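Morning. Coffee machine broken again, so started the prediction first thing and wrote up yesterday's gels while waiting. Chain of 427 residues, entered below exactly as on the submission form.
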Amino acid sequence: MNVSPIGLAHAARAFWRTRRLTHTLRTPEDVRRWQASRLERFLARVAPRAAFYANRRGTRLDQLPIVDKAQLLAAFEQFNRAGVTLAEARAAIDAGAPRVRGYLVGQSTGTSGNRGVFVISEAERFTWLGVMLAKALPDVLTARLRVALALPAYSQLYASAAETGRIALRFFDLRAGVAAWRDEIAAFAPDVIVAPPKVLRALAETTSMRPARVFSGAEVLDPLDRQVIEAAFQTPVREIYMATEGLLGVACPLGVLHLAEDAVHFEWERAGSQSDLVKPLITDFTRSTQIMARYRMNDLLRLRAAPCTCGSPLQAVESVEGRLDDVFELRGADGALRMVTPDVLRNAVVDADRRIDDFRIVQTGPDEVELALAPSLPAEAAAAAAANLSAALRRAGAADVRVKSKRGIDVPYDRKLRRVMRVWRPS
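Came back before lunch.
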């Protein structure tokens, strides 16, 4: 299907605006000034169109309430100008006809419980496309590209790219498993591949594909996977940081993730007094259907202090470490719970022995942690990993934690891979 002239116009405007900003925004101060002008208009004219913000016209951003997913879902119709209810959106999605009164609705994969839901207009769908292409495939107007998407579900957002006629796009369904279409994707010989890290790694280890550009999305890119993928494909892995809340960042050609500060304003909350990880509060000043203002995300990021050598003034990210839901809460000697972030747990295991190239760490109780390692890993490496993990937990103040080791690692292609996960919740 070819895109409508109106959709193409929205995509083209967003594409050229984003490309222009790469030249006009030269310093972080330029970015702040740009954001200030866009936020002023957003707060005065756009946000008040949603019922939740109707009485807050002219309010400064720092005077708006902080909103999380639970609050948004509880009063979903108040956060979008179309008045689409959560029940309407979910019913349309379940019916396979994801539109309500002309608006596109969608949802996240829901790995942390309740699925996030979004509402966007047709214009916003193509604005998203223009921004994405400008950041990830800026040569799309001069080169016809074969793009492979290996994802759990085919989003209407990605479908927009195929509608332009500039991209030969093929979708490979993760729910069928990689083995079901490994030969097909190799025969397609994509110039560009977009897939979760676990899939990129599987393809890197079992095919001879050589895509020119490799994008990781949908889950955390672990350094263990990055090393394997880049060595096999001989090109940097570039993260696409996207969530139900929108496009939040795209890595530069050097492989460094940069936040989409030309479209989204970020505020930061510290993950804990002893951690350098931060949680983002986002305000997307490009969206006008569903308002995302001071929305607290669940992700844990480590920001780069130094600018990226690519020259971009957009905030560089050292790593997306995981989610707040996966911060371990373990009992200390005084009976109080101690927080241990995913990066501390991961580093304790991988630093134990260089032969460790995969693992799972799961908190199953207030003083119980399960460590899963590959069956082929030598016994001394497995013992070192368990000892290192126990020592890291003790340093974090967790007393008498039992680390249970096991062999065997599941790779879930139909859902997000989480190497560090907390399944136990305090009552």
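The chain has two domains: 5-323, 327-422. Going to sketch it on the whiteboard this afternoon.
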